[in-house]
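Hey team,

Filing this mostly as a record. A colleague (T.K.) asked me to run one chain through the structure pipeline before their review meeting, and I want the input and output archived in the tracker in case anyone asks later how it was produced. No errors, nothing strange. Just documentation.

Input sequence:
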Amino acid sequence: MLPFLLKSTACLAIFLAFYKLVLENESMHHFKRFYLLGALLASLIIPNIVFVEYVSVAQSATILNSVTDINDSPRAMVEATDTEWSDILWGIYLLGVVVFALRFFKNLGQIGYRIHKNPKLKQQSITRVLMGQPIPPHTFFSYIFLNKRQYEDRTIPKEVLLHEETHAKQKHSLDILLIELAQVVLWFNPLIYLLKNSIKLNHEFLADQAVVHSSEDHAQYQNTLLSYLSHDSFETYQSTGIANAINYSSIKKRFTIMKTTTSKTSFILRSLLVLPLTVLLLSGFTQTRQIEIDQTSDQIMVQEENTSQSDLSTYNVLAINNQQQSATREEMKEYNALAKKYNNMGPEHMTIKKSEVMRLKVIYGKMSKKQRADAEPFPNFPPPPPAPDATKPPMPPSALKSVKEVKTTAPNVPPAPPVPPKPIEHIKKMVAKGASFTLNGKEISGKKAIEVVQKNKHINIDAREANGTKPIVKLSTDPIVIEN
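Output structure:
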């Protein structure tokens, strides 16, 4: 920001010096009007112009330094101090902007109040506002403010009315509004006030020129101006700062300019002098940026000790495809936000996201030297964990095979016993074999035995089989005594 302000101020100073030395005392007032407005705009535009020059560069290798090499703690402390001073200066600047903006809107409100509260007479495109105070005549756009009593008594000379009508018809208030807005933003620049005075004075030259061309009696017009420039009335009822008003301090200069004439040859020569002046300013205050275009087919990044393979791939893609030698404004904003986030964490409590670290490296690779100097310091990331020991010899195939066999071979374990059948299934099987059944010592049928087992889940069953005989099944709700 500071380099731009210095260049802009220097441009405006040169434009004003040229005006004072070459143009001010000439009668080419319409040209001077546009010159003064153009000087203001050019002094703001020229420092922002950037000429781009493409330079072919052939490189065989590019080395990416480790992250820790770009972090400089003393430099970070200096940048922190500069940031504090920058915040103070910005605070002072914004305070001045607020004060001058309030002043500007106060003047607008005062003119609006005068237009609304006083009687008005409209004649064609001009509106006369008749006021009770004995103020000097002044103009704002199409409104001409006049003393009501003097206007009704017809004591205001026609030359004065023509002077103010010229201000209205040539729309001099547009110039005043522009310079007033510039003063709000650039209130700290003393050249703005010099430019403002020159613009207002040239407006008076233009209005005087219109009156002089309509009347051959210059002396009478000059005497009329003097009669309207009493110090007492002017100091007591001052017109607002954004209106065109007759000014006592400029009267001597105006009388001198009224007698001056500029020939066509002199007008053309003095106008053409603006061209070399503009070329000089363009060559001295514009920026030239060289963009290096790599013409080699391959770019190699030499891997250092802590550089990962993903870092190598990212860098090489950028090195081959990227012709941009500076980061964009959005990328700088993203970089500063991420860098500030990690710098505020500290190395002891740092939670790192790989995607954000890679984004920081990509944007940092695009940045120019000036952008790196103005940006947040690159975060001091802790070193990555050590990689596996590559010097340890791998296991032989035979050892790997034995390990697999140990893991896959199951021990000799006896099979699990079969699951016993359900009681009801066992009874049905005995019925099919023609077994005899007893319940608590009393003989029952097979069908009855099935019903008893189904209804009683806590029944005791004793089944015995002998070769050549029917099985005997004893059912009991009491404990069974097994006989030897």
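Quick notes for T.K.: Confidence is low (pLDDT under 50) at residues 60-72, 231-239, 296-307. The longest strand covers residues 50-57.
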